[in-house]
Design goal:
Length: 255
């Protein structure tokens, strides 16, 4: 295989990792249409898209591959990527004391990794929250990549006397573009019901469900347990359920 073929393959593989399969298909379709390079590079308002598009176009030009063949190749890369990530794996995640005999991943690191993997959408739910800088940094980077980031939190009103101090939503201040949502008290059929879910979903393909709140204690000090699910229907169903709760106004934006 020639070096130009290898370069094109490497560029296409990098493109699907950086853009995800949805945006890669958009790039393929724009290339198939044969428009100007400037229009193709700005087809999607995502920070990484122009650079990735230009790299793909440059590699295509070096290879001399026609637009139609390039589009078909990129669609194939997107489909292969989706099939590969559809394989379901389940991994245990823990906070607290470690044991050398049984290696496990930490909640703190997995949270940061899940945020770092998102290329389109990141959904987080937590009961309590305080500022945890590594996660805030990961969320800021996700927003810079053009990821839609929404966080569902409990409120002091909803929690009653179970929470005190600052509103959990305050943990996410200073992140422009991040959407904050909550479960209003008037939507709760039972008195004393709490927004107690703790999860993170990236691109409907990676799901972390944990007992840990997004607090220093939850991600680093307590003994907390969770599961990290990759592929299969669970991540998609979780994200779709949250979206449906939003559509029905069970969950509402926090001002």
């Amino acid at each position: 295989m020639s070096s130009v073929h290898s370069r094109f393959e490497a560029v296409a593989a990098d493109a699907v990792e950086r853009l995800g399969p949805v945006h890669l298909r958009t790039l393929a379709d724009r290339i198939a249409e044969g428009g100007p390079a400037s229009g193709i590079a700005n087809a999607v308002p995502q920070p990484d898209f122009p650079d990735v598009a230009r790299r793909v176009l440059s590699a295509q030009l070096a290879l001399g591959m026609p637009n139609g063949e390039t589009a078909i190749y990129l669609h194939g890369v997107a489909s292969g990527y989706e099939r590969h990530r559809a394989t379901t794996t389940v991994e245990s995640v823990w906070t607290g004391p470690a044991t050398h005999a049984v290696p496990v991943r930490s909640t703190a690191q997995v949270l940061v990794d899940v945020a770092g993997e998102a290329s389109h959408e990141l959904v987080i739910m937590t009961y309590s929250a305080t500022a945890y800088q590594p996660l805030l940094d990961a969320l800021a980077r996700a927003l810079e990549r053009g990821v839609s980031v929404m966080v569902v939190v409990e409120t002091l009103q909803g929690a009653g006397s179970a929470l005190n101090g600052a509103e959990p939503a305050h943990a996410f201040t200073g992140l422009p573009g991040l959407e904050l949502w909550h479960w209003p008290a008037d939507e709760r059929a039972e008195q004393g019901a709490k927004m107690h879910a703790k999860l993170a979903v990236a691109d409907q393909r990676v799901l972390l469900v944990s007992s840990a709140n997004l607090t220093q204690s939850g991600v680093s000090r307590n003994i907390e347990a969770g599961l990290l699910v990759r592929g299969g229907p669970a991540p998609q169903r979780a994200a779709e359920h949250v979206a449906r709760l939003r559509a029905r106004s069970v969950l509402r934006r926090l001002s």
